[in-house]
Amino acid sequence: MEPGRPCAHCTVQGCAIYENRPEIPCRKFKCAWLADGDVIPENMRPDRCGAIVMFDRKWNGWSIVKAVAVGDLIPEETLEWLMAYARENKIPLLWQENLVVDGKKYGAIRNRGFGPPAFVEHVKHAIGPEDIMRL
Ligand code: SF4
Predict the structure, then answer these.
(1) What does pTM read for this prediction?
(2) CA-CA distances (angstroms) from residue 101 to 72, 108, 114, 134?
(3) How far is the CA of 29 from the centre of ligand 1 (A)?
(4) Cα separations (Å) of 68 from 16, 42, 94?
């Protein structure tokens, strides 16, 4: 339920309580792959691309595309697709990963921004001097 930290009901076969899964977030939430299949390609399915993508999100007054890492980090090729989408549609991209430096995990989420310089600066200043949001 956080980047790199799956739900306790998540198993290799899928959701262990699927028939009784809660309304929020499980029944209501739809990632971009589910909700906008005509826009997002099949290989951007979260378990294949390593990111849960959300279109039409609001963040500090910006309309953004948001992506959250499925594991610790979003794979490079997925980021490339997201950045190309952001560039093409002139919409800022905010993504969240676990903070990993030289293989060491810090138990923190790192927010990164891509888009107009003003947006990237906003991400840095909103998150703090080290670009880190503590859990
Ligand atoms: S559907 Fe909901 S309860 Fe089931 S694994 Fe996913 S997040 Fe967990």
Answers:
(1) 0.83
(2) 11, 11, 20, 15
(3) 11
(4) 22, 18, 9
**Distance (Å, rounded) from C-alpha 133 to C-alpha 130?**
9
Please, what are the averages of pLDDT over each run of 10 residues along the chain (135 residues)? 77 94 93 89 94 93 93 94 95 90 83 91 69 41
Residue nearest to atom 2 of ligand 1 (CA): 26
Rg, C-alpha atoms of the chain: 15
The C-alpha atoms of residue 2 and residue 127 are separated, in whole angstroms, by 17
Q: Report whether 33 contacts 95 (CB < 8 A).
A: no
Q: Which residues line ligand 1 (CB under 6 A)?
A: 7, 9-10, 15, 17, 21, 26
In sequence order, the 6+-apart residues with CB closer than 8 A to the CB of 95 are 51, 66, 67, 68, 69, 74, 79, 82, 111, 112, 113, 114
C-alpha of residue 26 to centroid of ligand 1, in Å: 6
User: Angle CA(54)–CA(44)–CA(52) in degrees, nearest 5?
Assistant: 35
- The rounded distance, in Å, linking the Cα atoms of 18 and 104 is 34
